[in-house]
Amino acid sequence: MAYHRKKIAVVIPAFNEADSIAKVVRDVLALREFPGTNQLEPLIDDVIVCDNGSTDDTASLAWEAGARVVYEANAGYGAACLTAIGALKNPDIVVFVDGDRSVLANETIQLLEQICLGADLVIGARVSAKREKYALTPQQWFGNVLASALIRMIWHAPVTDLGPFRAIRFSALRKLHMSDPTYGWTTEMQVKAIQLGMDMREVPVSTLRRIGQSKISGTLKGTIGAAIGIFGMIFRLYNEEKASQDIPSNH
Question: What gap in Å lies between CA 220 and CA 243, rounded to an integer?
C-alpha cells in the first residue's frame, strides 16, 4: 500500500523523557513506505515533540534526533497535544505516540493502513497477547477496562481500549474541536468521534515496558488525576449530549 500521496505528521507529548525521546523520534523517522525493502522514501513527513515543562534534556535531544520542538508550560497531556496540533502544517493524517518508547514504531503502519481503508480514527489496542509483563500497572489495566466498558454501555460502541497510540485524519481531528488539557484527552477524542458517527476502529498493537517511571500510573497523584480526567470526561460528554437532546425543537 502506497502512502506517499498522504502527508503524515507524528505528535509526541513529552515530559522528562530524556532517556527515551531520541529513540522514539529516530524510530519514527526511520519508518519507510515499505518496511523490509530498500524503499528509501520516508513514511513520516513531520515529527513534533511538545516539551511539557521538562527539567531534563528532553527538548534538545528530540531536536538533535530530528524532531521539531514546541513548548507548553502548562502541565497536562492534553495541553501538550493541543500545542503540538497548533504547530501542524496541514497534514493528511496525524499519529499520536508517547515519548516513553512503550510501543513499536513499525506498528504505525497498521494504524495507517486502516486510515487508508476508510477509517477516520484508529486506536492501537493494547491486547494482552502482545503486552510485555509489567507493561501496564494494575491500576492502568483496571481503569482502562472500566472506562471502556462504560463507553460501550452508554454509546454501544465497540471500544476496548483508550490507548494513546492512535492515528486520525486531520480533517476529522479538526471536527472534534478537542479542548481537554489534562488526562481526559484520549477519552474526549474517542467519545466525540462516536457522537459524530465517525468510522473508528481498533487494531491490536504491542505494549512494551516504558523507559523510566510513568508520570501518571507511577504516582498516586497521577493515578487519581487520570481517573478523574477520564471518568469526568465520559460523564461530561454524556451530560452534554443529553442536554442537547432535551432542547425543544423550533418546529
Answer: 34
Provide the pairing of β-strand 46-51 with 200-207: unpaired
Contact 213, 137 (CB under 8 A): no
Q: Rounded to an integer, what distance in angstroms lies between the CA atom of residue 155 and that of residue 200?
A: 13
Give SS3 for 100.
coil
Whether 30 is in a domain gets the answer: yes
For the chain, what is the radius of gyration of the CA atoms?
18
Domain span at residue 106?
A: 8-136+160-212
Q: Kindly state the DSSP code that residue 209 receives in the 8-state scheme.
A: P
- The DSSP result for 25-87, as a single string, is HHHHHT-BSSTTS---SBS-SEEEEEE-S-SSSHHHHHHHHT-EEEE--S--HHHHHHHHHHT
Alpha carbon distance 42, 188 (integer Å):
31
Give burial (CB, 10 Å; 0-12/13-18/19+) of 155. middle
- Total count of domains within the chain: 1
Looking up residue 23, the CATH number of its domain turns out to be 3.90.550.10
C-alpha cell, 23:
529513540
Is 90 contained in some domain? yes
- Residue 1 falls within a domain, yes or no? no
DSSP state of 249: P
Domain membership of residue 229 (yes or no) is: no
| pLDDT, tens digit only, all 251 positions of the chain | 444 468 999 999 999 999 999 999 999 999 987 545 556 688 999 999 999 999 999 999 999 999 999 999 999 999 999 999 999 999 999 999 999 999 999 999 999 999 999 999 999 999 877 888 888 888 888 889 999 999 999 999 999 999 999 999 999 999 999 999 999 999 999 999 999 999 999 999 999 998 876 655 445 566 787 788 999 999 999 999 999 887 665 54
